[in-house]
Amino acid sequence: MSRKTLTRRQFVAATAMSSAALITAPYVRGAYAAGKLSIGFWDHWVPGANKSSTDLVNEWAAKEKVEVSIDYITSNNKKLELTVAAEAQAKSGHDILQMPTWWPHAYADQLEPVSDIMEPIIKQNGEVNGTTKYLGQAGGKWLAVPATVGSQIKGPCSRIDLMKKHAGIDVQEMYPAGSVPKDENWTMEAFLKAAEACNKAGVPFGIGLGETTDSVDTAGAIFQSFGAELVNAKGDITVKTDAVRQALEFYKKLIAVLPTDAASWDDASNNKWLISGRGALILNPPSSWAVAKRDAPQVAEQCWTHGMPAGPKGRFAPFLPYFWGVWAFGKNKEAAKSLLTHLSQPSSIEKFVAASGGYDLPAFANMTKLKTWAEEGPPKGTLYSYPDPHGRQTMSIAASPAPPKIAQQIYSQATLTKLVLRYARGETIEQALAWAEGECEGFMRS
Amino acid sequence: MAFFLTLPLILLIALFVLYPAFYSMHLATLNKSMQKFVALGNFTFLFKRDTFWMVVRQSCIFALTAVFFKALMGFIVAHFVHNLPAKGQRKWRGMLLVPWVIPPAMSTLAWLWLFDPSYSAFNYTLSFFGVGPIPWLGDTFWARFSVILVNVWYGAPFFMIMYLAALKSVPDQLYEAAAIDGANWWQRIWYVTLPMMRNIIAITTLFSLIVTFANFDIVRILTSGGPLDSTHLFATWAFQVGIQSSDIPLGACVSLFMVPILAVAAIFILRDVNKRGNEA
Predict the structure, then answer these.
(1) CA distance A328 to A112
(2) Shortest CB distance from A442 goes to which of B49, B133, B139?
(3) Residue A128 DSSP class
(4) Is A150 helix (H, G, I), strand (E, B) or coil?
């Protein structure tokens, strides 16, 4: 058996020739020349809506020669929040991770600033609303890119027939599809009167008083419309104010005409309330209407999504934006920013909105009049007012304007709903306020 | 050689038990932003919070009540099964174990539908008798009752099967001797069955106490700790504080608070079991 050996001289010659060939050869760009990118997106409620994200990412990846992998992570039982926390702890994970409301601030020091891409995006798509800035910026820098996917307003979805019959309110006339709302008389007093009338007629408003986000968001918008803040923007506790007392008095009257079990409602309860035909109004994004369209078409035909009633301090809509964050420890940050720019193009936003049947809401001023909202039905125009196309409301999140790290505690521990429930269940107003003050003091730790 | 054979197990325990335990202790000593060492600062902060003491009280009520009823029901049902003819006993044993073998997250969802605020099957049934509607999950008393009920339903089969095994190991001669001495039904239980089952009762109680104290899924699914925090346990509150409110050190601190309580219980119960083991 012969065995060919490689001499030192032969090895040096072969190495030199290979190196020369590599240096002189033309640059051939491989299929994934720009590296890899892993993405964690929120798993959409709406069937088929994830496909638009996949398609847009693949379209970008093919153009930019990047190998992408996408995980769709459910927000059920806070799996998405757990993933954010775990990746932040491990300093490893996806390059881009979608995160809800408070999370960019919670992990601000571990996120790559994205102001460089946000400036041109805003120039193109229009200014973002105050809540998006409040949640997405720190020290004037953008921490994450506002995601269209998952962002939502939890405004009123009313039953046209029941509101007309029992409360004497024509919601279609008040919020006509295609034109400016005639909502001057749609105030908190009118809302309360309508709630009382509908309760008397056996179709109460379906507003939860539990500890999940739907209940908290509603409480947040109502408090803000009275100018009630538990902690102000400077971080001072402002529980014992007239505005908070006024909000509590309003809530006490409202609770008296809500379903008796509202304290145990979760985020599915109000959906079921509307779809089963038991209530005249809920506060929710149009997902409940979309399910009704499938399961109870006779209910869906009577649904109309519209703006919030105005309080003494204005008209506030509960807005919950999602963000796309780029981890500072990510390996391909430039590619991540390039993809996020692509996902924020008007054409991409339009695709997201269409794929979600109008559920997803861009945070940009120029993107509130897309044809999906005008055309969705039945009844046609039911979602026209959902994105607040005429800018009649202030987008808000419960517990703002407190500094986000304090506000997150107030929000996630449902301090607002617990406060109103304590007062409604027999505590004196001073006892309830003292409790809330104690809670807020605890949230101040840094 | 023996050491090398046990090495895989030691490594697994080190990786999945010791490391997380020490890591959570480390986390509990950091400030909220996890950048500063605060020693026991988080614990002293917790001790001043009313909600924390409410959670301590509720965890004790939940664990002690649930374990007591699980033990009682397990004991009663084990006797019924033990007295069944051998032929059909296996079927009953299998059926009675069903609640314990279904993943609790799944079975609790079914309970959630039964307790549903607006469409409760229980309330629907009770309405035929002119009772209700009962706010199963919306009222403090009923919400506590509901989470304990589901925990008892889920955990009683474990006690039943352990007690059944213990009952089968009690020598028949002891009962025969007791019968000759004229012992009645109660005396047979008090002077023969219970002393013979003492170790099993102690071990199962300890084991169940640890698991029940650390319960998460039942409360999380049924009430998320509400209404007004009245059903929060250490684990659910730790999750709310640590994950939902992004205060991981405080969350770690809350969950670590279970350790001394359970350690004291474990020391007492295991010392008692050891003592009796040595006496035997």
Answers:
(1) 4
(2) B49
(3) B
(4) strand
* Chain A residues contacting B via beta carbons under 8 Å: 77-78, 81-82, 85, 89, 102-103, 106-107, 109, 209-212, 259-266, 269, 272-273, 276, 278, 405, 408-409, 412-414, 418, 421-422, 425, 435, 438-439, 442, 445-446
Q: Which of A216, A264, A271, A278 to mutate to test the interface with B (most CBs of B within 10 A)?
A: A264
Asked if residues B158 and B99 have their Cβ atoms less than 8 Å apart, the reply is no
Residue A244 to residue B52: CA distance in whole angstroms: 25
pTM exceeds 0.90 for this model: no
- Going from the C-alpha of B197 to that of each of B89, B165, B169, B180, B269, the distances in angstroms are 21, 10, 9, 22, 14
| A102/B246 touch (CB, cutoff 8 Å), yes or no | yes
Query: Which of B226, B239, B248 lies closest to A210 in CB terms?
Result: B226
Say how many C-beta atoms besides its own lie within 10 A of residue A212's C-beta: 17
Between strands A156-159 and A145-153, the pairing is: unpaired
Q: Which residues of chain B neighbour A81 with C-beta distances below 8 Å?
A: 243-244
- Does residue B228 sit at the A interface (CB-CB below 8 Å)? yes
Q: Which helix (H) or strand (E) holds A42?
A: strand A36-42
Q: Is B26 on the interface with A (CB under 8 A)?
A: no
Exposure b/e, A230-269, CB count within 10 A at least 16 = b: bbeeeeebbbebebbbbbbebbeebbebbbebbbbbbbeb
From the list A103, A278, A421, the residue facing B228 with the nearest CB is: A421
- pLDDT tens track of chain B, all 280 residues? 888 999 999 999 999 989 999 999 999 999 988 889 999 999 999 999 989 999 999 999 999 999 999 999 999 999 999 888 888 888 888 899 999 999 998 999 999 999 987 788 899 999 899 887 888 998 899 999 999 999 999 999 999 999 999 998 888 899 899 989 998 988 998 999 999 998 889 889 888 988 898 899 999 999 989 899 999 999 999 999 998 888 999 999 999 988 888 888 788 877 877 776 665 5
List Cα–Cα distances, A170 to A33, A50, A350, A375, in angstroms: 59, 36, 30, 20
Indicate yes or no: CB of A260 within 8 angstroms of CB of B45.
no
Are A74 and A374 spatial neighbours (Cβ–Cβ below 8 Å)?
Answer: no
CB B211 within 8 A of CB B81: no
Chosen for mutation from B45, B48, B246 (greatest number of chain A CBs closer than 10 Å) is B246
Alpha helices in A301-332 (DSSP H): none
What ipTM does the predicted assembly reach?
A: 0.79
Cα separations in angstroms, A446 against A135, A404, B42: 18, 12, 11
Closest-CA residue of B relative to A410 is: B245
Helix (H, G, I), strand (E, B) or coil at B125: helix
